[in-house]
Amino acid sequence: MSLLRKGQQWGTFACVWHIFDATWQDPFKSAHLIKKYLIGLHKPIYHPLNQCGDHVIVINSKEIALRGDHWQKRVYFHHTGYHGGATWTLAWELHSKDPTMIVKKAIYSAMDGTLQRRFTMQRLHIFPDDNVPKEMLENVSNQIKQLRPVPNRLYEIPQEERDKIPRLIQYPSDYQLK
Amino acid sequence: MNGLQLYLQSLLNIKHVNYGGYRYIKRWVSPTQKEITRRKRRLPPQSESKRSNFIDWNRNSEIYAFNTRLSEKFDTEKLNQAFTHKSYIVAELKKQQEMGIEEPKLDISHNEEYIEKGREITSEIVKKYLNRSLPRLPEVGIMALHDYLMSEQMLATASSHIGTKDIILTSEHPVSQQTLAQTFVALVGALVESINVDHASAFVRDFLIVGLANKDLTEIWCPTKPFELLNDVIDAERKMSIEARLIGQAGKNTILSVYHVGIYANKEYLGSGFGETIAEAKDVAAINILAQIYGLHHTSQPLRFNEELNVSA
Questions:
Q1: Same structural domain for residues B172 and B81?
Q2: Average pLDDT, chain A
Q3: Are A71 and A139 in contact (CB under 8 A)?
Q4: Which of the residues B33, B234, B278, B295 could staple to B300 if both were Cys, CB 3.0 to 4.6 A apart?
Q5: How many contacts, defined by CB atoms under 8 Å, are there between A and B?
Q6: Phi-psi sector, A86: left (phi>0), alpha (psi -120 to 50), beta
Q7: pLDDT tens, A3-26?
Q8: In chain B, % of residues over pLDDT 90
Q9: With an 8 Å Cβ cutoff, are B258 and A5 in contact?
Q10: Does the keyword section mention Kinase (chain B) (predicted)?
Q11: What is the extent of the structural domain holding B255?
Q12: What's the structural domain count of chain B?
């Protein structure tokens, strides 16, 4: 193979590292987005038998947002295999024990249950906050766009800027604000 | 149509007396076949049988068929001479001597001079044809492609594909690659004498130069210092110097690290290449651009094999 062909091959099968910020994102909807990068479905050379999946680093998995009352109602089932070994853990409980677990399980169950699934999962790196090892961060060359923009919360805005926001109504001076 | 009907009728009328249907295979067939196979396996490896030793071999008709098959007009005498190697004559004379003939004599001539002449002409034709179809390729590249085509292997392949293997007269058996290659150039030499150089050039083009079709030309020739060469080329053509820039990278700290280097001349994008390291990517990018300039790239227009070459002029 000539050097030219080798370069072409090397570029075609390049393994790209992506980063995804999970702050205020729905893990179950993001899972379907991240899955495509992990499997390599976004590449024109995709084939289930060739190795074309990319690496994805998910940061801030602690800050995910679940829909409705899913924190209280969503249940993660586990069975140890022994008699009476079944446990049902609520989403908020699981999240307090391991803040990466909900994202991991969401992505795992978003993929088809093939033999490749566990190997594909090895290309996923989840961090509860934004403390990613430096040498891992140096690999990254693409950011996956978030599904929803992170809203600006009022309490995060400093008081001086908050005062500059134009007001629609002015409370009367004797109005009891509670 | 009537003839066909007659034929079909006569086919229907054949009584299958000798081929009467039977629903069994005789008990002796299987053990006999097995024994024959067993004995064949036990034999030492047999040498390839010589086609000319078969009883139905007719050399004259083979020579005629060779000429007609290729739609060539070889002079039969010269064609015969082109196929006769010196080793064959030596071996024949020795055979006569062993038979007790005092003054062994054989009234045929060998193809030494055809080989010499044919090689020279083939080389010249190949060079001219390549120069014409790849006009921008430098002399080193042309010579590399020329050496590839004139290599023993390519010549032997061309020779065996036109069916010379059984007609060659030589002392060795089976025919070696070297002899096959020599026969091809001898045929070119004979064709020049039979018709003319221009016709021989079409022969060389049709059977030898087409060997370059669907080959990766950059594999046959690749500049050793591509970046410097590209710099010289751009400098000579546009009076500018080139600049390599890193335009992409992935997985820097992994074993699958990829670098994407682009080459620019006066802020104008020329081309790019990928590589394991930055230095390699830079070389690949330069080769990429050079191959496109020279017409060796896999996306360049393929070589044409229908051009007429005027060698004699």
A1: yes
A2: 95
A3: no
A4: B295
A5: 72
A6: beta
A7: 999 999 999 999 999 999 999 999
A8: 83
A9: no
A10: no
A11: 222-294
A12: 2
Alpha helix positions (H), chain A: 3-12, 27-39, 70-73, 91-97, 101-110, 117-121, 134-137, 159-164
- B86 CA: distance to closest CA in chain A (Å): 40
- Phi/psi of residue A18, nearest 5 degrees: -110, 155
Nearest-Cα distance to chain A for B51, in Å, is 39
Nearest to A150 by CA among A23, A58, A56, A65: A23
Instruction: Please tell me the class of the A16-164 domain.
Output: alpha beta
Tokens of A41: 């479905």
Given CA atoms B293, B294, B295, B298 in this order, what sign does their dihedral have? negative
Average pLDDT score over chain B: 91
Mutate to test the interface with B, among A5, A8, A9, A10 (most CBs of B within 10 A): A10
ipTM of the predicted assembly exceeds 0.90: no
Report the CATH number at residue B238: 3.30.160.20
Amino acid residing at A73: K
Tokens 């990429």 — which residue? Answer: B288
Q: Would you state the pLDDT for residue B21?
A: 81
| Whether B184 and B128 share a structural domain | yes
- Among partner residues A1, A10, A139, which is closest to B274 by beta-carbon distance? A10
Residues A74, A88: Cα–Cα separation, whole Å = 10
